[in-house]
Every structure is written in structure tokens, then in C-alpha cells.
Predict the structure.
Amino acid sequence: MEDIKVTDVHDGVETAPLTNQDLSSVSLTVGELLSQYGWYLLAVTALLYLLIQHLSKRRSSHSSSSSNQPTLQDAALVARRQEAMEAARMKMQQELNAKAEIFREKQRQQDEQKRRQKIETWESMQQGRSYKATTTSSLAAEEASSSTTPRKPKSDKKPLRSADYNPLTGQGGSSCSWRPGRRGPSSGG
């Protein structure tokens, strides 16, 4: 087997030598891309660089701040904040409970007063007295007792218009009277 030689046969077809064996076509393509999109590529590269720098700073600051000693301080700080919030909530709840109790007491007093008023009305009706007179007198007494500011005495009111005024007649109010305008178009057509 050692005496066998292999030879290539071209069968009459000639192969042309390779023309672009160097990198001249690649350099032309890259030069053309840079001439068209160079500024865009430069801006994208700068932004990527800045983004990488920012992320690396963030990662290093995050890893350094997560040591054991600050965690203990943070836990104590969180516990103090929670205690303060709980104390504030309890204070607000106590104030709300006090206001609710005052409101309930006022409601009870009003209900009791209404009950007494109904009883008085019933008794006056049983005795044959007028229902409305009892109600208005009790309401006046109730308003006087419940209000803390003194009421002004009512002054004699004069009527808003004279007794002989009637808007349907067109007389009595003033010297001029209103009349509706003519029907139809305002201009001649």
C-alpha cells in the first residue's frame, strides 16, 4: 500500500485562483458601515458603557450594605417604628371610642326626650287638650333648653308687598307694566 500514489485529475476543467485572499473586502464593508452608522454605533456603545458602570456600582453598594451589623440596627429600628405606630393607633382608637361613647350618650338623651314628649302628648290628648299646642310649646321649650346661644327676639316684619298687589291685573305694583312683544318675525322676512 505504500507504493500507491494519488493524483488529482482535473478532467479539462480549470479552476480560477482565489482573488480575495486578503481582508480588503471586509475592510471595505466595515468602512462603509461606519461611514453610514458610525455616530449611532458610538452613541450605543457609550450608553452600554454607562449602563454597565451604573449596574456595577449598584451591585457593589448593595452587597456592601447587606452586612450583618446594619441588619441588627435595621431590625431594632423597624421594631421601634412598629411600636410607635402601634402606640399611635391605640391612642387614635381610644379617642374614637371616647367620641363614640359621647355620641351614644347624646343619642340616649334625645331618645329619652322624644319618649317623654310622646308621653306628654298622649296624656294631653287623654285630657282633651290640643295636640298641636302641646307640641309647639314643648318644641319651643326644647329648643330653648338645647341651644346655648341666646335667641334674638323676633321683630315685627312688614310684608314684602302691599295688600292690593295682584300680578294678574297688571296694576298696583308700579306705574309701568310689562306687556309681551308682538308675535311673528322681528324683521320683515
Remarks:
- The longest helix spans residues 68-127.
- The radius of gyration is 52 Å.
- The mean pLDDT is 79.
- The chain is about 60% helix and 0% strand.
